[in-house]
Amino acid sequence: MNYPPELRIAADRVAIQDLMARYAYAVDAKRWEVLDEVFEDGAVVDFLANGGVRDTWPAIGVWLSAAMSGFTACQHYLSNFATDVDGDRARSRFYVFTQMITAGGGEERIVSDGGYYHADFVRTPAGWRVARLSGGIVWWSGSVPEHLPWWGVDGDRFGQ
């Protein structure tokens, strides 16, 4: 069936949001194998803006697993998707709000952050996949990690 272009673009936007929901689920549930359904091989993932690393998929999976190992639980909420679809390619910017639980000394503590992702997507025979993902933290609440390069520095934290 031949769908009108605006309907196809709307369906693509929903599919891209669902793909990123799978990403959030994989990270939160520490189900790293699910990320095989999210990233295309060789996808570039860049978390330098929030004190992380830049690497490609699947190697970045090792870093993600280690980076998230200090949290006993977390939840990523993704919103405010601004997605442009151009045939079999798409580009999106969206917000992330994350709550994370750390445990130490017999007590749990909540830390939260808010930030953004920029992503490029490619349509594959298996559906949309992430070709490039970068993210940054705009704010942090709780015990602020020393590795955040922007903490206490005035300026644009939105990574235009």
Can you summarize this structure?
The protein is an alpha+beta fold and 160 residues long.
Oligomer: single chain
- The CATH architecture term is Roll
Q: Main beta sheet: strand number and arrangement?
A: 6 strands, mixed
Q: Structural class of the helix and strand makeup? A: alpha+beta
Regions with little confidence, pLDDT below 50 for 5+ residues:
none
- End-to-end separation in angstroms reads 39 Å
| Gyration radius, rounded | 17 Å
Give a count of the beta strands, DSSP E runs of length 2 or more.
Answer: 6
**In the CATH hierarchy, what is the class?**
Alpha Beta
The overall average pLDDT, rounded, is: 89
Placed side by side, the strands forming the largest sheet appear as: 2-1-6-5-4-3
Count of helix runs: 2
CATH topology (level 3) name: Nuclear Transport Factor 2, Chain: A
Taken as a percent bin, the fraction of beta residues is over 45%
**What shape does the CA trace take?**
elongated
Helix content: 10-25%
Q: List the helices and strands in order.
A: HEEHEEEE
Number of domains: 1
Question: Keywords for this structure?
Answer:
Nuclear Transport Factor 2, Chain: A, alpha+beta, elongated
